[in-house]
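Continuing from the previous page of notes. For each protein in this section, the sequence appears first, followed by its structure tokens. Read the first protein now.
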Amino acid sequence: MPRLLPANGPQGIGVFTDAGVSGFRRNGPGFRRMLIFTKEQSNSIRYVVVQELSLVSRDHRVLADVVNSLGRSGVQLRSTF
């Protein structure tokens, strides 16, 4: 996993991937695991960091649903691109 966080700052606690799953779909197994994990661990997670938002979804309505779902758990979605 590439290090995207500073050595003395927040620590990454999980990597969730869906290789070969289109950004138009949000039902990949890694995506579902990430949503469940963030809901279960919301007291220890502040951000979900993605490489780029289009990898979450290319549909703005779906992306808004994801942001709202994470937000209900107190988690913010951030993109590096």
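Done with the first. The second protein uses the same format. Note its length before scrolling.
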Amino acid sequence: MIGRLSKSSWGDVLSADSILNSKKMCFTLIIEVDGKIHETQKDYDEGRTAELNRWGLRVIRFTNEEVVNEIEKVVEEIKAQINLLSTKNEQKQSPL
């Protein structure tokens, strides 16, 4: 198992659709599925994502339409992000 996937809330700053937290691989991936409301709050979403990135958290976003109509693409992107984060953390932990 890579990590724990949950719907989570960390106070006022973060309420995410899904958070994949891997203590073993030392990363947290936040997965957001954006509905129509996000079309009118792009600045807010970008600011929130930037703040989470400053905390060392990776955020990826998909639209509702992508999840419904292109689920294979969504799954592949999530897998790619997990692989990328895992590789980066392995390199950080390497003594070389």
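What the second structure shows: Helices lie at 42-54, 64-69, 71-93. The two ends are 27 Å apart (CA to CA). We return to this in next week's lecture.
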